Amino acid sequence: MPSAPPEYASLNDIPGARELVGYRINAGAPEEPVRVTLDVDPKHANRVGMLHGGIIAMMLDAACGFAASKHFGKGEALTPLVTLTLTTSFVAGAKIGSRVTAVGTVTGGGRKIAYASGELRDDAGQILATAQGSFRAIKYEVEI
Amino acid sequence: MPSAPPEYASLNDIPGARELVGYRINAGAPEEPVRVTLDVDPKHANRVGMLHGGIIAMMLDAACGFAASKHFGKGEALTPLVTLTLTTSFVAGAKIGSRVTAVGTVTGGGRKIAYASGELRDDAGQILATAQGSFRAIKYEVEI
Amino acid sequence: MPSAPPEYASLNDIPGARELVGYRINAGAPEEPVRVTLDVDPKHANRVGMLHGGIIAMMLDAACGFAASKHFGKGEALTPLVTLTLTTSFVAGAKIGSRVTAVGTVTGGGRKIAYASGELRDDAGQILATAQGSFRAIKYEVEI
Amino acid sequence: MPSAPPEYASLNDIPGARELVGYRINAGAPEEPVRVTLDVDPKHANRVGMLHGGIIAMMLDAACGFAASKHFGKGEALTPLVTLTLTTSFVAGAKIGSRVTAVGTVTGGGRKIAYASGELRDDAGQILATAQGSFRAIKYEVEI
Question: What is the ipTM of this complex?
Answer without folding.
Answer: 0.89
